[in-house]
Design goal:
With 160 residues, this protein is an alpha+beta fold. The protein has helices at residues 36-39, 95-107, 125-134, and strands at residues 11-19, 30-34, 43-47, 53-57, 68-72, 77-82, 84-91, 113-114, 118-121, 137-144. A hairpin with a 5-residue loop joins strand 3 (43-47) and strand 4 (53-57).
Amino acid sequence: MDSRKIHTRMIRLIENIGPAKPGEQPDCAGKLELSYEQRVKGRLLTRDDQDREVGMFLQRGRVLRHGDLLKSEQDEIYMVTAQTEQLSQARCDDWETFAKACYHLGNRHVPVDIGDRVLRIQPDAILEQMLVGLGLQVASVDAPFNPESGAYSGGHHHHH
């Protein structure tokens, strides 16, 4: 009997084809649950939901978003899901306070996940203190992190 290991080939993901169209349920060969830090990278070695080795070889400069579909060299589709992470969530009741908070965070080029008078950032004591000083209530939450992609990035937009 041959005692050599059977070597499985790494799945190579080479193209981000964006999110599924509304109402479309793509036939996916697998899912990749990735943190925000992993979704920023164009090159990554990871494992899919079936514990298969997956290498991402994507165009750099575009952050993967929750629901993005990636195509493999064999034309199989893999879906990206945003991993739950520890985040700082700030909320307030009035739009003026909220707008000021978004302005100050944007002025610092901080990735911000923006909802209806609620925003999420990666934990940062200095920024949290600033938000409290502006009048927002800040708490730690576990949630997926999907920050805005930026006005000049050419990415797609989302809402909570």
